[in-house]
Amino acid sequence: MDSFFSPTANCRVRWQDLPGNGVPLVFIHGLGCASSCEYPRVVVDSAFGGRRAILLDLPGCGYSEKPQDYRYTIAEQARVVAELVAHLGLESCFLYGHSMGGSIGIEAAVLLGDTVAGLVVSEPNFHPGGGFFSRQICSHSEETFIEVICQQMIAEDESPWAGSMAVDAPWAVWRGAASLVAGNDWFMQFVNLPKPKQLIFGEDSLPDDDFSRLSALGVSTVVLPACGHSMSWENPRALAGALASFCR
Fold first, then answer.
1. Strand ranges (DSSP E) for 156-238?
2. H/E run at residue 16
3. Are the CB atoms for 11 and 66 separated by under 8 Å?
4. pLDDT of 102-160, one tens digit each?
5. What is the pairing mode between strands 197-202 and 51-57?
6. Most exposed residue of 43, 57, 205, 232, measured as fewest CB within 10 angstroms of its CB?
7. Where are the beta strands (DSSP E) in 58-115?
């Protein structure tokens, strides 16, 4: 695992650079997750096609440092993604972001401009107000979430998510959720992005108004079978194939 110092987060940020061919794909994980935990199974699947993959653990998550004086906003995390791309000296890359990582990926794509060859997002937050998970977190104060609620949520969850949540900083999770609730117009940023782009949904998460709106606008959309929001572990092969097809 490699690391660099992020001036935005004022901490060391870590990632895995998995060798492969073609323009690399940078993975940006969701709330309470870590790319180092969530995406190795996707990348090693034969359906992924052996593309170079960069699995980023955002500040506060996974193997990256977890400063308590960082705000963990979507905009700041997007700047960290841009810093990593610059640190690696990538002349071109694809971005993939899931859930909160989709919102971060949208803002990072805007920051990176011509460096981005294309953007894929899966079930991102497109609007202010957050999703069920982020609203649930922010129904408590940051202090209460850190001291009580976070550990309760981990203990009550039986999915793979609990493993990554257990090593994420609870203040990072709460502040990330608060930034999603505060929100931005990520929907129109995505629509107006002058790059190849695609929206992925699990079939169990449909119907969805934003999916229908983007399809009607002519944006590329893909439905993955036999999965819902947690597609990376519910159907990793389908996700691997969809990402490989887009990056081709």
1. 197-202, 220-224
2. strand 11-18
3. yes
4. 999 999 999 999 999 999 999 999 999 999 999 999 999 999 999 999 999 999 999 99
5. unpaired
6. 205
7. 93-98
